[in-house]
Amino acid sequence: MNTAVQVVNTRIGIVTATDLEQDQSFTRTLGEITSPNARMQCRNINVWYANKQAIKDVSLDIGKHEVVAMIGPSGCGKSTFLRCLNRMNDTIPIARVNGSIKLDGKEILDRGIDVVPLRAQVGMVFQKPNPFPKSIYENIAYGPRIHGLTTSRTELDELVEISLRRAGLWNEVKDRLNQAGTGLSGGQQQRLCIARTIAVSPEVILMDEPCSALDPIATAIIEELIDELRAHYSIAIVTHSMQQAARVSQRTAYFHLGDLVEVGPTEQIFNQPQHKLTEDYITGRFG
Ligand SMILES: Nc1ncnc2c1ncn2[C@@H]1O[C@H](COP(=O)(O)OP(=O)(O)OP(=O)(O)O)[C@@H](O)[C@H]1O
Questions:
Q1: Whose CA is nearest to atom 14 of ligand 1?
Q2: Is the CB of 47 under 6 A from ligand 1?
Q3: Of 45, 47, 49, 212, best ligand 1 pocket probe by most atoms within 8 Å of the beta carbon
Q4: How far is the CA of 19 from the centre of ligand 1 (A)?
Q5: Whose CA is nearest to atom 6 of ligand 1?
């Protein structure tokens, strides 16, 4: 865990978005958008909802074995950008995305791409735990079954166990695999959803405020888990909690009104931000 980072939180007056827009005309992202070990490479991403532009020319890599935190004021486009990474914006009829996103060198914004295997490769964990109304076992087994990942019941059993172990849930549920997933606590349900994502062999896991519905203890467990999952996956996480971003991520990206203002090593973003907008946000002047 990245405990060295201290989040400064001195509230010195509220600045409105309009003030900041007038004061800080945005030019280009500060910091290093590339990762030496990139798993995903996003370049010049623009997203519109009908005529309203929500993401403006954003470029960012997600590296192997790293957690990238996306922070910024409400409505700045964090979730919209995250949803580009596995084409979830395709499900919103008025959304239009352009630019380039490569996963292991392969363009994923091409029209011909089958989004079903893509969304297994780039899995998503949502704000509110959303287990299927099925047993704990079936919640995990469903994905591997439809993707044809196992050939026997024994293999499937193993995969269910491995996924639950990796999500830190096995010991709590191994004796009640046939009980409903919805009967678990909120934190357990979120780990079940993480196990479900893991079961279909993702390379990248997207997390959209995965702890916002959880209590502090469940949150701490998920944060520990995110740190462990980094050994196997690339992780992009949207969070409103700067403390959480500081604890779990290696790189942090600060978004503002659809722009990626600044990105860099998490410690640097929180201790020595280069852009005034970033500084204003992390010191609590805005957001
Ligand atoms: N489905 C949608 N249809 C129309 N506009 C949308 C849709 N989703 C998001 N937007 C708009 O796009 C902009 C960015 O929204 P987005 O949810 O990506 O921001 P965010 O930074 O994740 O916000 P929050 O922190 O509040 O979740 C906002 O102006 C929002 O109103």
A1: 77
A2: no
A3: 49
A4: 21
A5: 49
Is 171 near ligand 1, meaning CB less than 6 Å away?
Answer: no
**Which residues have CB under 8 Å from 153's CB, separation 6+?**
none
Q: Is 10 inside any structural domain?
A: no
Q: Separation of 16 CA from ligand 1 center, angstroms?
A: 18
Domain assignment present for residue 256? The answer is no
Residue nearest to atom 24 of ligand 1 (CA): 74
Report pLDDT digits (tens) over 68-113: 999 999 999 999 999 999 999 999 999 999 999 999 999 999 999 9
pLDDT tens-place string over residues 34-61: 999 999 999 999 999 999 999 999 999 9
Give me ligand 1 centre to Cα 22, in Å. Answer: 22
Residue 125 has pLDDT above 60, yes or no: yes
Domain that holds residue 66: 25-238
d(CA 30, CA 259): 11
| Residue 178 domain-assigned (yes or no) | yes
Q: Work out the average pLDDT over 224-233.
A: 95
Protein residue with least CA distance to atom 5, ligand 1: 49
Which among 51, 149, 54, 55 has a CA at the least distance from the CA of 101? 55
**Residue 232: CB partners within 8 Å, gap ≥ 6?**
166
What would the mean pLDDT of 261-287 be, rounded to a whole number? 92
User: Residue 8 domain-assigned?
Assistant: no
140 within 8 A of 160, measured Cβ to Cβ = yes
What's the token pair of residue 21? 């827009």
* Stated pTM of the model: 0.90
